[in-house]
Amino acid sequence: MPCFTKKTNNTQQALTKHKMDYEMESLKEQISHYYTEYRYQIEDVSNKIHSNPELSEEETFACDTQCQLLEQWQFKVERNYKGLDTAFNATFGEGHPNVCIMSEYDALPEIGHGCGHNLITGVALGTGIVLKKLLTENSIPGRVTIMGTPAEEKRGCKIDLIKAGALEDVDLVMMAHPSDDRTSQSTVTSGLMQYLVNFEGRTSHAAVAPEKGLNALDAVRLLFNGVDAWRQQLPESCRIHGIILDGGKSPNIIPDTSQADFYLRSFDMDYLLAMKKRFRNIAKGAALMTDTRVNFEEVANSYKPGKPNDVLNKAFIELAKEFGMNPEWTEPFRGSSDFGDVTYEVPAMHAYFNITDQYKDAVIHSKDFAQCAASPFAYRQMGKTSRILAQIGHTYFTKSEFRNSVKRSFPFV
Q1: Phi, psi of 122 (to 5 degrees)
Q2: pLDDT reported for residue 227
Q3: Are 49 and 121 in contact (CB under 8 A)?
Q4: Predicted pLDDT at 362
C-alpha cells in the first residue's frame, strides 16, 4: 500500500510539473507574440530618441514621443508629472497590484546616448505594452504603469518624484539598463553625495605684491592633497573623486576665488555620512592654512546605496538564461544611480543587459557605446529583456506566493 501511494504521488507530481511547463511555454509564446506585434513601433521610438539626444531636464522630444505612442496604445498619460516638465506617468488598468516600469531617456554632453538610455525607453515601452495585453486578454486584475523619469545623468529626478509621492500607490518597480559587461542581476550600488567647495581669498599682483594676496587656488590644491592622504585610510567599498572648476584667471593674478566639484561614494549610508564630515573638515583645514574662507554647496538629490531584491534577481537570471543571454551574477557596482532611492520605497529591480557583443573595447559613457546603443544586436537584447520583465510582471500579477516572496525580500518593510 505505501508503494502504491508513493507511485501515485510521483505520477501526480509529474503531471503537475508537465502542466506547469506547458503553461509556462504557452505564456512565453503569448508574450513573444505580443512583443512582435509592437516591435517596430518600440524600435522606432528608441531609434528616434537615439538620433535626437537631449540633455537632462531638456528631454522634450523624448518625452513627447513616448507619450504620443502610449496614448495611441490607450494608456492614460499624465504629462508634466509631479511638476517636472519632462516626466510622465502612463497607466492602464485599475487597482492593485500596480507594476511600474521606469523609463530613462536623457543623453550625455557631446557623446549622445553613450549610456544607452534610448534602450531603457524601449524596454519600458515593450514591457508595458506586453503587460497591458496580458491583463486585457486574460482578464487579469491590476494596473501597469510606465513612468518617465528624467535627468538620471544630472541630478536624479526619481528622487524628486519620490518626494512628490509618485511611488505611494506602486507595488513593484522594474527597469533594465544596457551594459558593456555581462547581462546581470540588479546589484548593490554606491550611495553618492556631491559637493561644490568654494574658497574666497584676495587678489594681488603675483610678482609685484604677492604678500598682499590670499591664494584661493592654494586652498583647492591643499584640499586635493588632504583628500589624497585620506584615501589610504578609506575602505575598498568607498570612492572620492573631484575636479577643479575654477582655479583663477591669469598666472600674474593671485586667485581670489576657486571652486572644486567632488563626489563621495560608499555602499553604506552611515559611512557615507561619516565621509561627509571628514571631507568638510579637510576643506576647512585647507582654508585655515591659506587664511581663506570656505563654503560648501551640497548638490541636491544625494543618492542612497541601492539595495537589490533577491527574489526578483533570481527570476531575472533564470529567464535570461532561457533567452540565451548568458547572464552572470556580478559584484556590487561602484557606480551610483537615483534608482538606489527607489529600492528604499518599494520592491525593485534594476537589471543589466549586454549590448556590446563582440565590440569588447566599447565602454559605457563613450561614443563607441553610443553607436552600440542603436545596433541590431542591442535591439535584439532590448526585445529579450522586455519579454523577461513582462514575464516577471505577469508572475507578480498572478501568483500570490511570488508576490509574498518579493515582499519578504524587501529590506525596508
Answers
A1: -60, -40
A2: 97
A3: yes
A4: 92
Residue 267 backbone dihedrals phi, psi, to 5 degrees: -75, -15
Distances (CA, A) of 227 to 193, 242, 262, 298, 335: 15, 9, 10, 17, 20
At residue 390, the pLDDT reads 98
**N-term to C-term CA, the chain:** 48
Q: Look at residue 360 in the predicted model and tell me its pLDDT.
A: 81
**Which residue type occupies 226?**
G
Distance CA 85, CA 56 (A): 11
Cα–Cα distance, 67 to 88 (Å, whole number)? 8
Q: Say if CB 78 and CB 89 are below 8 A apart.
A: yes
Closest residue by Cα to residue 34 from 136, 102, 175: 136
What residue type is assigned to position 7 of the chain?
A: K
**Where do the domains of the chain lie, and which CATH numbers do they carry?**
14-189+304-408 (3.40.630.10), 191-298 (3.30.70.360)
d(CA 363, CA 311): 29
Predicted model pTM: 0.86
Residue with cell 531575472: 316
Strand 98-103 and strand 142-148: the pairing is parallel
Beta strands 172-179 and 98-103 are parallel
Other C-beta atoms within 10 Å of 400: how many? 9
Q: Are the C-beta atoms of 259 and 246 separated by less than 8 Å? A: yes
- Nearest to 323, CA basis, from 380, 275, 269: 380
Q: Which residue stretches of the chain have pLDDT < 50?
A: 15, 18
Distance of CA 324 to the CA centre of its chain: 24
